[in-house]
Amino acid sequence: MNETATAGKLYVMGVGPGASDLITVRAARILSELDVIYTPTGKKGARSLAHAIIEEYLSPNTQVCTYHFLMKADIAAKQAVWDEVAQALKEEVANGRKVGFITLGDPMLFSTWVFLLQRLVSQQMTSPSWLEIVPGITSFSAIAAASAMPLAMEDQTLAVIACTASETVLEQALLNHDCIVLMKIYSRFPLIRDLLQRHNLLEHALMMADATLPTEQGWHNLAALPLSEKEGMQGLSYFSTILVNKNWPLSR
Ligand SMILES: C[S@@+](CC[C@H](N)C(=O)[O-])C[C@H]1O[C@@H](n2cnc3c(N)ncnc32)[C@H](O)[C@@H]1O
Questions:
Q1: Which atom of ligand 1 is nearest to the CA of 111?
Q2: Burial group, residue 18, by CB count within 10 angstroms (0-12, 13-18, 19+)
Q3: Element of type H or E holding 147
Q4: From start to end of the chain, where are the E strands?
Q5: Residues 82-126: pLDDT tens digits?
Q6: Closest Cα partner for 209 from 242, 249, 180?
Q7: What pLDDT digit, counting tens, does each position of 20-61 carry?
Q8: Which of 14, 96, 132, 146 could cross-link with 8 by S-S, CB 3.0 to 4.6 Å?
Q9: Ligand 1 center to 30 CA (angstroms)
């Protein structure tokens, strides 16, 4: 997009892990001043969690556009949606509007926003003047705080990894780092639990689902959790994350 062509601006804001008061003061201020906001939803027709988090900060005059980002479709279908939303954002900014786009947690970590960013800016060191990215509290820092489990200290290393990775990659992360954040657990809970057991890490691991939301649940004793063959773990929330700290044994 042309740097000088427009007075419009795109504000991409991380809205944190779930609690409405875990967004930044900057994001709250920007949200109250927007012309239009784009809110993502994972399921067609479903309410956007990100939108529910920030609803109280929005001006009643702000237009709300909800986009359905396909989660399970093939790559071509996903790319078509990213192209469409990137184009819509571009046009809004070119029309001089103050445009908001919100993502859960932080926008630069495992976020669909990054696919739009690739379409909107060429690689450069500084953000263009029509774009501002406001960081958010990631789910794993909220979980570390809620469970009083540190993430890394001094010369320790921290790996953040999606459980959609191969078993070898997951195992290497567990072997090579002091602290490991395991995101996107989905149906891979049984595999992760086996890996933790195999490497004597169960007593250093905890899992939290829906952190900072009213439905928040946390587990220290992962060995005792019931499994169902189909789902990996019965009713496990999509918003579930495991933290491992080899230097921080957890009391059971
Ligand atoms: C697409 S990623 C989004 C990550 C997000 N950008 C962040 O900064 O946390 C979705 C994954 O984030 C984690 N997650 C997001 N919100 C969470 C929450 N409230 N509690 C636990 N895990 C959460 C889960 O591992 C989930 O599978």
A1: 6
A2: buried
A3: helix 139-147
A4: 9-14, 36-41, 63-68, 98-103, 131-134, 158-162, 179-183, 205-209, 217-219, 240-245
A5: 999 999 999 999 999 999 999 999 999 999 999 999 999 876 667
A6: 242
A7: 999 999 999 999 999 999 998 867 666 789 999 999 999 999
A8: 96
A9: 23
